[in-house]
UniProtKB/TrEMBL annotation:
NIDO domain span: 105-268
Keywords, ordered alphabetically: Signal
Name of the protein in its database record: Sushi, nidogen and EGF-like domain-containing protein 1
CDD domains: CLECT
The keyword Signal appears for this protein: yes
Signal sequence, start to end: 1-21
Superkingdom of origin organism: Eukaryota
Gene Ontology biological process: cell-matrix adhesion
Entry GO CC: extracellular space
Annotated ranges, domain C-type lectin: 284-409
Gene: LOC118419370
InterPro entries (UniProt xref): C-type_lectin-like (IPR001304), C-type_lectin-like/link_sf (IPR016186), CTDL_fold (IPR016187), Epithelial_Barrier/Signaling (IPR051495), NIDO_dom (IPR003886)
Amino acid sequence: MRQFILTTCLLASLAVRQTSAEVNRSPPVSNAAFYPYGPGTADILDSPADDSSSGEQSLSIAFPFFEETYNSLWVNTNGDISFGGSVTGFTPIPFPVEDNKLIAGYFTDIKTSYDGRSGYIYHRETTDATVLSRANTDIQTAFPAEHGSFVAIWAYIATWHEVAFFGSSGASRNLRNTFQLVLITDGCKSFCLFNYDRIDFLQGSTNGGDSETGTGPNPAQVGVNGGDGIHYTPHPYSTSTDLYNLPTWTDPAVPGPPGRWYRRVDRKIIGDTPQGCPPSYEFYGDKCVKLQEHPLDYAAAISKCEADGARLFNIRSQADNEWLTDQLHLFVSGKLYQRGFWIGLTDEDTEGTFVWEDGTTLCPTSYTNWASDALASNDGTRNCVYISRGYNGKWSIKGCDDKKKSICVTDAEIPTCP
Ligand SMILES: [Ca+2]
Ligand SMILES: [Ca+2]
């Protein structure tokens, strides 16, 4: 019987595996983000399935996840890797979810057993020198300051190749998604690469989905769920129609190929816990944030953050803007949000030249999200920039003496691995 909630099964699945030679398949994608998979590799190919898993996969190197280490993992049909048990539910209940410790590459109702087979789920652990060398380059390039000397000792590559969605039929059976999770560790720190090549559907036909279009009110979840009901990290596009853009998305803050997202996963990355954030701050993503509800002028808002060792939230990317806009939704309700929040950008010193609070200048190529009339009405009396959720996260300019809410932010510090 199909389950209607996300559940963990502690028993290993008895899924029977086929070797690579047993079925015909389209070739692996040619995509710079993807690690080698499928025919020609040592990949396990899971049997066609719905709401099932690979069964428990023993690991030769323990994988650090969420401040614990795991000697096994499960690769699940519905687009995720889990620890401590399989996850066979098909409803992407919004994170944070208790009991399920998982990394969701594209968690929705996937089915690979239509017409004998409708998609391929491959996976393997590896200590192959070529793979590890590539992993080193990827992590070192992505995080040169923090992890520039990272040395991988192990990786796990799981690929959902051209998988179909549950409830698809006829033409919609041709809507296929191809994505890959790559787990990498040096034995202490660990990372996951999320790679996307093709996203044709947003969700399965369960949870209100449309069996003809693969769309619906509950698009797939992408991200990391710690499993304590508190800590999680969603991709900025998770549960939105932006999921279609995953194959071309690049993280503006992290160098890497299009279609890839990086997350460090050994630490407690999010949530409301005493360590890691200053008092009265909450975890959001790998940041600590605090809403300053009391409206303050621009200088006072900055001073208030600085008193906590924090700064105004600066927006450097579309992902930042989307993240912040979402947070405003969580923080405030009713009409309060329409008053706007200072974002730490001003042209107070030189009219028309905008500078972030940390001293960096807004360049012509920098990400911006100006309201259509913002720059045209900019003058010497309007020098400080705010974002308003009531205006879809657009930026506007006001006098710096105006009083607005603000959000202080600081990086979370969680001592686990260096
Ligand atoms: Ca399914
Ligand atoms: Ca101005």
